[in-house]
Amino acid sequence: MSGNVNIDNNRVPRHIAIIMDGNGRWAKKKGLNRIFGHQAGVNTVRKITEACVEFGVKYLTLYAFSTENWNRPKEEVDALMTLLVDSIEKETPDLMKNNVRLLAIGDLARLPQKAEEKFRNCMKLTSANTGVNLVLALSYSSRWEITDAVRQIARLLSNGTIDINDVNEDLISQHLTTNHIPDPDLLIRTSGELRISNFLLWQLAYSELYFTDVYWPDFDKEELRKAIISYQQRERRYGKTSEQINN
Ligand code: IPE
Ligand code: IPE
Ligand code: MG
Prior knowledge:
By secondary structure, this protein is an alpha/beta fold. The protein is 43% helix and 14% strand. It contains 8 helices and 6 strands. Helix 1 crosses helix 2 and helix 2 runs parallel beside helix 3 (74-97). The model has no long low-confidence stretch (mean pLDDT 97).
């Protein structure tokens, strides 16, 4: 149905966050090892980043590796880390060409040293780019992030830098790893799972949610277009009535 509808360029979501899921099942369906699914998933990352450049999306946040994913079999974790290093190396020229700024949220210190270094170098190199902000969530979980923010705020309170009355929503937002990144307008999860899996719990408070059965390696520009069109057909009321929004 939405295949023929065009995106309204005046109402493109500023920030899209995606839980990229289904790489393993995509590979299994083809009789391949899970890691082939992750490799195919990297191609989708490239295509979707380019589609965001084209559609005018300013922030794209991708859940690439969760805190809980450290509990996967060691071979899979190692393969994912190797893939991360290789992909950054391979994709950096295209990031520069497409004017993409790479950012990260998550506990980067937990990554293997080489991966962390490559990542930080790429962020530095792309830091002046002004097109899409590509935010990778790596070793990220929302409860980790919120706990860390609470710890930082507790420190400021205990050393007298702030008073208890200074603790408000803005202060909490400022101590999350997404400080300076607007909240997502649209959250997409692929692969048919209907859950948030510890992703951006604070930031998604008023995001529109979109779920598709498509596995991440099969997700493409057309699927992204469908998600954006679904987003554009909704009314964001933020607790108000429809009449208030339209008057
Ligand atoms: C998402 O795909 C990628 C990561 C979590 C790293 P999965 O690896 O979770 O794929 P499924 O859910 O097993 O199919
Ligand atoms: C969520 O996917 C994390 C990423 C996409 C990186 P998972 O496949 O790990 O999620 P659960 O554990 O099945 O919910
Ligand atoms: Mg999964």
